[in-house]
Design goal:
2 domains; 34% helix; five-stranded mixed sheet; alpha/beta; 6 helices; Nucleotidyltransferase, domain 5; 265 residues; six-stranded mixed sheet
Length: 265
């Protein structure tokens, strides 16, 4: 069995795969500090609670955008699973041609998403939108070129910034408000977050589809925690919640048998 871990700025999103089949999925805050023992005990416990025997996990694959957790995760995997983790990062096989000026700058989660899209939707141009701590838009061509993307604050990050940087605004539940024009401070913030991001989704998707693929059609794929919030707006061609973990599993399989030293993504 393969334990796949997507280590983000807010959460660790994980799954155990038996072949291509995910047996369970889970999330844990990635807030620092966290020890290798704390993480290892959590992982073993959450697997047992999902009827997965931790002793059957033979391999671990990691996509991380949190360099400060690199040692903790490696030590955790070695101690609690007896496995040195495969780390998605510079120098590993992905099947992508990364067009960034410095390919090492592209987050491992974005690379994993792109790997998954090229396998799930072969021969199609794609705009991939990932709703996390940051909301990212990535352009991936039908010839597996990672063309680049756009990064902006995620919904919760934007909401927390409003609450932190203003005297009279406050945190709110992130939901779809019933109308555009709010009649309370809370509903006005909710409207700005929801409809502001909806406008960004529509405009960025339209501009990227028109400008990145030489006039050819492209599909829009959504993933990440807040992607479900916009599911009924008909702005995505598909919503794939576990896209990053699927891509991480595929990258691991491409590199199976290769010596992969632990690296930061």
């Amino acid at each position: 069995m393969l334990l796949a871990l997507d280590v983000g700025n807010s959460q660790i999103y994980g799954a155990v795969f038996e072949g291509e089949k995910p047996l369970c999925e889970f999330r844990k805050t990635s807030k620092l500090p966290v020890s290798a023992d704390e993480l290892g005990l959590f992982l073993r416990s959450v697997l047992r609670e999902n009827s997965v025997n931790p002793q059957e996990v033979r391999e671990v694959a990691v996509a991380s955008v949190v360099p400060d957790l690199a040692y903790t995760i490696r030590h955790c995997c070695e101690k609690y699973f007896g496995a040195r983790p495969f780390t998605l990062g510079p120098g590993v096989k992905t099947g992508l041609n990364v067009k960034y000026k410095n390919p090492a700058e592209v987050g491992a989660d974005r690379i994993a998403n792109a790997v998954a899209v090229t396998h799930l939707y072969p021969g199609k141009n794609a705009v991939v939108i990932d709703f996390g701590t940051a909301t990212t838009f990535c352009a991936v061509s039908k010839t597996r070129d990672y063309l680049g993307g756009v990064i902006l604050p995620g919904l919760r990050t934007a909401m927390e910034a409003l609450a932190e940087k203003t005297a009279k605004l406050f945190p709110v539940e992130i939901v779809r408000p019933p109308e555009l024009v709010g009649r309370t401070t809370a509903s006005s913030i909710q409207s700005g977050l929801y409809y502001g991001n909806l406008a960004v989704i529509r405009e960025f998707s339209r501009e990227m589809k028109a400008g990145c693929f030489g006039g050819e059609n492209a599909i829009v794929i959504a993933t990440g925690g807040f992607s479900h919030l916009f599911e009924q707006e008909n702005v995505f061609d598909a919503l794939v919640p576990d896209l990053v973990l699927t891509g991480l599993r595929l990258a691991y399989e491409m590199n199976r048998g290769d010596k992969n030293e632990d690296r930061n993504a």
